[in-house]
Design goal:
30% strand, 20% helix, alpha+beta, nine-stranded antiparallel β-sheet
């Protein structure tokens, strides 16, 4: 048979076709600008098809709106809560070819011939180009709407992309990847990403969306349902500045009670009041530090009816009081699903508070209904159930499970094919976790200002950080593969602007504490979890035991030592929490956050910084006794030995089972508190200050009353700490502020870290200096 050889041009066309729709926007007819109107806060462009608007929010934030019509429809924004901006000085210049908008930090150019939009710093190469915006008429869930798509041309081969929530593919840098922005168990979708070029894009759409960079020179963002295309370009260039811009739009995270930063005991599940209290009492008898114990599901008779099963929980109020008397907090699981056969179900059904009565299969009996968190009245009703049954007897925190909402037995999210109080569920498909956490947060804030809200949610959406919500990584497997996946999953979630993340230490499904190989996995997972924003064990275990003593005495010794380290770090961690609330900080930090221009660091997704001091290097392979890791450009101290290393290179580091490789950056000032069994057992005195010389450094110690909202009224104190490396001088600055119960006088034990000096978990026996401090500046030298 004679072979047919296609001309090169035809071959090229066929190859391009393989990437459709990845490059189809390049083939679209031009959509030129036909009119330009300068407005008070930006510029509006009439295009041949549709209307484009640039709004100047700040020197570093530009909002882009596009409507397929000649005007923009009025619509309520449930995610972005910033509705007014301070006036910003900006200029507009127009030529025959382009219109340029200039702020103190950015230059935005709109090409008149095709209405493309290019974002650049005042000096330097373009950062991002919106080459095309299209809105295609479609019908979704019975509603006439538009499919929105943005196409962007990319420059260079080293630009990295991060964020987009928490996903379980094990991917760190999303360059060359595609990600569905759609909620389901273990995948949390946030339409916000950051680039190593120093910008972020917040795609303001609540329907199912998609990030697509599989064709490396093109980036696509798309959504299933839209009336307008709406996104924010946020310039940094540092990632902390970009995240600060995102939180300026969507809200700041409040402080949790200090107890929440300690250790949490949990399993699937405690079955009786007697069992729960017995575990709490044993922790205190064994003097293992812990602050919180968790009651998982089925404490009720019927799902949705918040009534304890009296045969198993005969005295709920007495149970809570017992825990409080033993310095425990209690978090309890509450679900958004309701089953028929109860007064609560019947009343909610009558009031129209359900999205849909859905038939389900699997581990849920048929006939349950999902409450409509988009309905303000339903949200108040839902909180009132929790308030009357749980908050009023002293329950401290809320585990809001299945907030995607639950999709495990069906391919499509329940919302996509149903109606909500707001209308088409497909339009709001990603927003359920934001709405349900908002109802609980606002409900508790209205009920009391003496107990800070804490919510643990299985899913999240943009803005949820303002609702005092943390998330965990969902129902993941109990194996080494999933341990490895949690590191990039947690780091990308943190880079999505939501700072509080945790994981089921040991995995959810399932593990055998009597199996030596599983014990090793659990230890390595716990070492990693010690440096998560929230430290929490949870999971299904074959022995029905998941406490630290369940893994044998050798494992218990290691686990308890890391638990002790967590509690010694509480002054550091609580100060990071204040930075997170007041300065838009992120405690769990992919290396790209602090070393953005270091290409090696930007592509390391299995190490991270915990605050400004710690470089954390989890061990994720069984039997691994040596860990290869990257030390970014800096001087580093081995936390365990005090040995010093220069950065900018890879190292092979010993990793015995009881020592996860851990480094501290030169210039760090690390405050460590005394050994304690719960977070407020002792005042943080004496306080050990470990000084890691070799660079200048600073840290601000934060303290308050630990668990109320008086800090919002100014009831807190800060102590600035500064290390001048050239002068070899530590300055403990003047204390600012005060609060009831504050230590007026305190002792600092200053340790200048060196080889085998000021190392490891235990308090340093021989500090270099002992300083008495009463709130006035003191200078200390070696």
């Amino acid at each position: 048979m004679k072979k047919t050889v296609l001309p090169i041009r035809i071959c090229a066309i066929l190859i391009f076709a393989l990437f459709a729709p990845a490059v189809n926007a390049q083939w679209n007819p031009l959509n030129p600008v036909t009119d330009v109107q300068k407005q008070a806060d930006g510029i509006q462009f009439t295009r041949k098809v549709g209307t484009l608007r640039l709004q100047v929010c700040s020197d570093a934030i530009i909002r882009v709106l596009y409507s397929p019509a000649s005007s923009f429809p009025s619509r309520k924004d449930y995610v972005v809560i910033k509705d007014s901006w301070a006036p910003v000085k900006w200029d507009m210049q127009s030529t025959d070819d382009a219109v340029t908008l200039t702020t103190a930090q950015l230059k935005v150019t709109v090409d008149k011939k095709d209405s493309s939009v290019t974002f650049s710093p005042l000096e330097g190469k373009p950062l991002f180009q919106q080459t095309e915006l299209t809105m295609t008429p479609t019908v979704v869930n019975g509603e006439k709407t538009y499919y929105a798509e943005l196409y962007s041309k990319l420059w260079g081969s080293y630009e990295g992309f991060y964020g987009l929530g928490q996903h379980q593919a094990g991917v760190w840098n999303y360059r060359g990847e595609a990600v569905d922005i759609s909620q389901d168990n273990t995948n949390i979708s946030i339409p916000f990403f950051l680039s190593t070029n120093g910008y972020g894009i917040f795609w303001n759409n609540t329907s199912r969306s998609r990030f697509n960079n599989r064709f490396l020179n093109a980036l696509y963002l798309s959504s299933e349902v839209a009336d307008v295309t709406d996104y924010y370009f946020i310039y940094g260039p540092d990632f902390d500045q970009i995240i600060a811009g995102y939180r300026d739009l969507t809200g700041a995270p409040p402080l949790f009670g200090k107890w929440a930063y300690g250790f949490w005991q949990c399993k699937n599940k405690y079955n009786t009041q007697e069992e729960l209290l017995g575990i709490a009492h044993k922790y205190r008898e064994q003097h293992i530090p812990v602050d919180n114990i968790v009651q998982d599901w089925f404490w009720w008779y019927t799902m949705g009816e918040p009534v304890f099963d009296k045969s198993r929980y005969p005295d709920p109020k007495g149970m809570v009081d017992d825990l409080h008397n033993n310095h425990f907090h209690l978090m309890i699981s509450f679900w958004p699903f309701f089953r028929p056969g109860t007064k609560t179900y019947d009343e909610m059904d009558k009031l129209g508070y359900f999205i849909a009565k859905t038939k389900t299969a699997g581990f849920h009996p048929a006939g349950q209904a999902l409450y409509d968190a988009f309905n303000p009245a339903a949200r108040k009703y839902y909180w009132n159930l929790m308030n009357q049954a749980l908050f009023k007897i002293g329950v401290d925190a809320w585990w809001l499970d299945t907030t995607e909402p639950e999709t495990e037995d069906r391919q499509t999210n329940i919302l996509v094919t149903n109606q909500t109080f707001l209308g088409n569920g497909a339009r709001y498909a990603n927003m359920f976790p934001l709405m349900t956490t908002e109802g609980v947060y606002e409900g508790q804030r209205a009920a009391s200002d003496q107990k800070r809200v804490f919510i643990l949610s299985r899913s999240a959406f943009a803005g949820e950080q303002r609702n005092a919500a943390a998330v965990w990584s969902g129902d993941i497997n109990s194996d080494w593969v999933f341990l490895r996946k949690q590191i990039p999953a947690g780091l990308n979630y943190s880079l999505s602007g939501l700072p509080y993340w945790t994981t089921d230490i040991g995995g959810f499904v399932s593990g055998n504490p009597d199996d030596p190989s599983y014990r090793e996995l659990f230890i390595r997972w716990f070492e990693f979890g010690t440096f998560n924003p929230i430290l929490r064990v949870h999971g299904t275990r074959s022995t029905n035991q998941n406490e630290l003593w369940s893994y044998g005495p050798d494992a218990q010794k290691i686990l308890t030592s890391y638990d002790r380290l967590r509690y010694r770090m509480l002054p550091y961690i609580y100060s990071l929490a204040w930075m997170t609330t007041s300065q838009a900080y992120t405690p769990m930090r992919g290396l790209v956050m602090d070393f953005r221009t270091d290409t090696e660091a930007a592509n390391v997704g299995d190490q991270f910084m915990f605050g400004p001091a710690f470089l954390v290097n989890p061990v994720t392979e069984p039997g691994q006794a040596v860990r290869r890791l990257y030390l970014p450009q800096a001087k580093w101290y081995d936390f365990w030995s005090g040995a010093q290393s220069e950065g900018g290179r890879y190292e092979q580091v010993p990793a015995p089972l009881d020592q996860m490789p851990l480094f501290v950056r030169a210039g760090s000032i690390l405050p460590l508190g005394p050994d304690e069994e719960w977070s407020t057992e002792k005042p943080a005195d004496p306080l050990e200050l470990r000084i890691y010389r070799g660079a200048d450094g600073e840290f601000t110690l934060y303290e308050d009353e630990n668990d109320n909202y008086n800090y919002e009224k100014g009831a807190y104190a800060t102590i600035p700490l500064h290390w001048d490396d050239a002068k070899q001088t530590l300055t403990i600055g003047d204390r600012k502020g005060s609060f009831p119960g504050m230590l007026d006088h305190r002792t600092f034990r200053v340790v200048f870290v060196g080889e085998n000096h000021g190392v490891g978990i235990a308090p340093s026996e021989n500090p270099d200096k002992r300083v008495e401090y009463s709130g006035k500046q003191i200078r200390v030298s070696p």
